[in-house]
Amino acid sequence: MNKTIIVSNRLPLQVKLEDSKLDIKPSIGGLATGMKSVHAEGNGIWVGWSGLTQDQLTPELEEEVKTAVTKEKCVTVPLTTEDVDNFYLGFSNKTLWPLFHYFMEYTTFERSEWESYKEVNQKFADVILENVNDGDTVWVHDYQLLLLPKLIRDKKPNISIGFFLHIPFPSFEIFRTFPWREELLEGMLGADLIGFHTYDYERHFLSSIKRILRLEVNFNTIDYHDRTVTVDSFPMGIDYNKFYNAAMVNDSQQKKERSELQRRLDEHIKSDSDAKIILSIDRLDYTKGIPNRLKAFEYFLNKYPQFKEKVRLILLAVPSRSNVPQYQKLKRETDELVGRINGEFATVSWTPIWYFYRSMPFENLIDLYTTSDIALITPVRDGMNLVAKEYVATRTNQDGVLILSEMTGASKEMNEALLINPNNFDQIADTIKQAIEMPIEEQQNRIKILQERLQRYSVEKWAEEFLKALETTKEKEDVFISK
Ligand code: ADQ
User: Fold this and answer.
1) Which atom of ligand 1 is nearest to the CA of 410?
2) Percentages helix, strand, coil for the chain, rounded to the nearest 5?
3) pTM
């Protein structure tokens, strides 16, 4: 029986070592949810790194990890601390991540890290090659594994390989600066189907294929070494019902125990029923436009002083990649901006910004989503942005306003949101005012359309459509080869 192998940098498990004891939990991310049914099917497996390096594991613990993850139908790729430093923190997060998000000034090109990137991609390939058979399907995810499709294809030509990029693919003028550009593109072309979140990323990729590899592109296919590679866009959705249902429970009496956070939010609402809560949630990443958002909020308070003491911005920043220097710098900048704005505007009874720097349990995320009147999402660049979609899904009364940066992939399918340019503070200030004053009927009209779309194109549907397209591509290709 043929199977599907899912491959991502990290397994859909949180594997921790506490007092030399293993603690393994399923992770709750969007990808894990989307892949759940694919992964559960037949004898499919998920290949990835466990999160613990070889240096942290004794042979006994390594065996224990293997046995535990096998139960979850997962297979680990062993990585050393050096691999993680050079391949993940180094090349993936200091080269590919900033470059693909248009942060040229943060991008470094280190040959030794590139070598490590190639070695680690090979380590992933070795594990897959031990587990794959002719007729199987392999679905590779994201920017850490761009070379993997070719490494598998070279050894196993008769399998279906899909690749999906979760971040933007930059324009040719940016991508051409990358020193190993041919090798990277050729790595991706090992796949039969290459998917992006939006048509723009697809177009940028095809333009680099034409101009760097000088290959002919026919609409969205590339003839390459006797094969046809198809390129298409598949905007990723969310587990709509999970968010909607959790919000329903929050609204109803079913939830007897209010969380501490919810009690504080309730108190705030009770103290002034006209007061508005604006929410912002992201990983603390320079692509997410957090300093812009804070400065725009400050600008808004100065431009429209009538809203002082009437609005509160809840800023939830999730710690991320905190050993990369740019992330440490961003943390300092965010702390300073919050301190400055709160210092400047706070009164005895009002603090304009509530700042949380931590990860929150799902329940608390739902508390925040359901209590907020406005979501302010202002990335300077973002492949998709699932937070925007999650906020909309939790609006069970269909009230609420989403303010969304036009630099996110999500903005391409969320026209009913109020779209802004994250660098235009005047526009953001005016849009916050518009959101605060928006009549309830208009809020509901907008949210209703957005919800219908999100419900139709859920993350499960996204995975299904991608795999269906991969199957069709492979069938067409086989006909092409046999001619
Ligand atoms: P991310 O950059 O991580 O993902 P995003 O799409 O917004 O960004 O997803 C973040 C996820 O983390 C959301 O599902 C959210 O619920 C969760 N989360 C946020 N804050 C949290 C908190 N405090 N505690 C717990 N969970 C929290 C990358 C790309 C995106 C792309 C996704 C999927 O950068 O552009 O949308 O992959 O392809």
Assistant:
1) 36
2) 50, 20, 30
3) 0.96
